[in-house]
Structures are given as C-alpha cells and as structure tokens.
Amino acid sequence: MAANRLDTSAGRRGALWLRLLRLIMLSFLVSPAAHAAEALVAVAANFTAPMHAIAGEFEKATGHRLRVSSGGSGKFYAQIRHGAPFHVLLSADAAIPEKLEQDGLAVAGTRFTYAVGTLVLWSARPGFVDGEGRVLAQGRFSHLAVANPKVAPYGAAAHETLDKLGLMGALQTRFVSGENIAQAYQFVASGNAELGFVALSQVMKDGRIAEGSAWIVPAGMHRPIRQDAVLLANGRDNPAAVAFLRFLREPGALATMRHYGYGQ
What is the pLDDT of residues 147-176, one digit of tens each? Predict the structure, then answer.
C-alpha cells in the first residue's frame, strides 16, 4: 500500500511538472502578441512611400503595429502643440523636431537625422525635362509647381536652387504654390503644371524614375534637406514607438530609404 501511495504521488508530481513545462512553453509562444503595442506616427509627406514599406518590415519583425498619418510637417507641429496624440514624428526638416523638444513636447535626446532628402525637377511628360535642368532657362512652360518655402523644406530648397541659377526673378510669376511637397507633386501629376520641384522619393520606383522626365538637382545647389525624427512626449512609455525609432537606424530600413533616393 505504501509503495502504491509513493508511486501515485510521484506520478502526480510528474504530471504537474509536465503541465508547468507546457505552460512555460506556451508563454514563450504567445509573448510577442501579448506584448505587442501600437504607435501613432506622423510622417512628412515626402516620406510616405518608404514609410509604408518600412512599417510593413517593422510590424513583421516585431509584432507591433503602426498607424501612419502623412502630411506637412508644419501642420503636424501645430496639431501636436494642440494635443494631437502622436507618439513619433518623422519630419521633413530638422527645425520642427528641435522646436518640439524645446517646447517640452518631445523627449530630449531622442532626436536624430533619419534621412537626407533629394530634390528633383520633374515633369509627367517624357522628354520634357532634360538631365541638366536647362528647361528652366529655356522657359517653354507656363506653370512651375513649388512647395511653400516657409513651411516646406523642399520648397525652400527649390527657391535656393532657382536663386543659384539666377532664374528666380524670371520664373516667380509662373509658380503654382503647394502647401507641401505632396501638393506640388499633385499639380505636376495632374497636368496643372508642366513641371515642378518635388522629392525624388515621390517619382522613384525600383531605383529609377518611374515615369515622365526629371533632373536630379545636385546637392550643392541648396542646403542639405536633413530630415529628423523624434520621440514625442506621448510616446515616452510606448514600446512600439521606442522600438520603431530604433528600427529606423537598422540596415534593412536604411537600405529601403536608399532605394527611394534618400541619403543618410
């Protein structure tokens, strides 16, 4: 009888250990989903295409989720100041993240340059823009799309380029002004402007200009378009937001950016 009781007790202990082992294994299997979080990311309009590609890579690698809003960096600044619940900002410039940091609306020490943008003069018409931008001086067009230089870094770069070429005075009356680089692109894509200054990422696909014709503006024609990212105060304790900013610096994300024409 005593032997039988010992055997039963040992068997129960064995069963309990087996159940415990299964629970431990199950916890490892479900832990990524259990710890998944969601972050709201405000993204400069010019970075929309690479952002969607990178977001997919990030979500697959981490299990976290991103909700992305694209638009003008200046508009995002105003929204964040008025309480918009974004966790991360990927700006089109370096000034806005710095101002948010100074305002106490971003986490100090988290700001960094995630990409350097490339300006391009583009037309939806094949052969319309030559490879050296001489079309600007020839003037055989009625409308030139340019983003607002006061709020759009690519617009400021376009103005600097025209100043350097000595063409600002001659072409200013032909400007079709967009609130941001996305609107400037739409003016050209829709045919409301024959050509315009846009971001290379908006017209590049698979490492080349997808359609139309373009002149990639040499970097020396304007100040660098340094685009900074920052963790916003709302994202301080958000694991998805913190992980995403870390992911932006990894080789895979950097390769995706280069594919869309961005430098680092």
Answer: 999 888 999 999 999 999 999 999 999 999
Alpha-carbon dihedral sign for residues 199, 200, 206, 208: positive
In a domain? residue 264: no
The three-class DSSP label of residue 123 is strand
pLDDT, one tens digit per residue, over 8-19 is 555 555 555 556
Whether 251 and 264 have beta carbons less than 8 Å apart is answered as: no
Domain co-membership, 144 together with 173: yes
At residue 57, the pLDDT reads 97
Tell me what percent of the chain is helix, strand and coil, each rounded to the nearest 5. Answer: 50, 20, 30
At position 62, the amino acid (one-letter code) is T
Residue range 239-244: mean pLDDT, rounded: 98
Residue 10 lies in a domain: yes
Q: Cα separation of 233 and 41, whole Å?
A: 13
In 7-85, DSSP assigns E strands to 38-44, 65-71
Query: Which range marks the domain in which residue 141 is found?
Result: 119-216
